[in-house]
Amino acid sequence: MKILVTGGTVFVSKYTAAYFAAKGHEVFVLNRNTRAQVPGVTLLEADRHNLGGILKSHHFDAVLDITAYNGQDVENLLQGLGGFDQYILVSSSAVYPETLPRPFQEDMPLGENVLWGAYGTGKIEAEQVLQQRVPQAYILRPPYLYGPMNNVYREAFVFDCAEQNRPFYLPGEGELPLQFYYIEDLCRFMENLLEKRPEQKIYNVGNLETVTVRQWATLCYKVLGKEPQFVCVPKDVPQRSYFPFLDYDYKLAVPEEQKITDLEAGLKEAYAWYRENKSEVRVKPLLEFIDENLK
Predict the structure, then answer these.
(1) Alpha helix (H) residue ranges in the chain
(2) How confident is the model at residue 268 (pLDDT cuts 50, 70, 90)?
(3) What's the whole-number mean pLDDT along residues 285-292?
(4) Residue 92 sits in which domain range?
(5) Most buried by CB count within 10 Å: which residue of 41, 99, 249, 282?
(6) What is the pLDDT of residue 104?
(7) 44 pairs with which residues across the strands?
(8) Is residue 172 a contact partner of residue 135, using CB atoms and an 8 Å limit?
(9) Residue 183 pLDDT more than 90?
(10) Same domain flag for 175 and 247
């Protein structure tokens, strides 16, 4: 297949481009060429907000839109495209209001989530524009993504704590549930959509079960052959100052038939990548806050 991946140089879009290129597809990436490109892809250098005619001469079997964050992003890309057969938009679980009952179902009403703010409402707009313009397009709503090439300081933060033999500071008792999805599982799901073309167009995707913060941190330490000592942090300390996730209890209802990577196995792959690519992760001053305020 001839596939267009928007982005292609950071985490989800980068892994996606590499995944489909490794499968033997002809992969084109659309980005501004400010970072290194994935081997085996063809660069179409442009800003998606100023495409000119760079895409008009191409017909893509599939467009994998990883970098649309609002309706205008989708509108600009659609206006700039020549022809295409299939379109997949990676949206987010942030489109569901936090007031809805758990687990979130695809047919629940969308709306502002006060914890995610403009990020969530922007994704709703992106979905709406795409549904109006391309009714046959697929929309995926994942939870927290993890794995190799993750430039967000999440599992990498716990790996740093484990490497430095630090105790791990838990929000409260560490019972906050988190739902994850391995980046390769997301790519595999997109691959299945392109091959099977199911009638359903919107999918929650993610691991079947949640894990608590305590369980997740324990697995991250275990990957390094270590066991954490936990320190419970009271609720009056701002959670994002010392911990990489929001204080947000949610769960998506996801397809049972998915092939899901075991969380520990996925974290092993994530750490193997992080160990060799630490400079690619956007480190936040969580450890500094802990050292100055919590020790």
Answers:
(1) 11-22, 71-80, 118-133, 155-163, 183-196, 213-223, 263-276, 286-289
(2) very high
(3) 98
(4) 2-141
(5) 41
(6) 98
(7) 30
(8) no
(9) yes
(10) yes
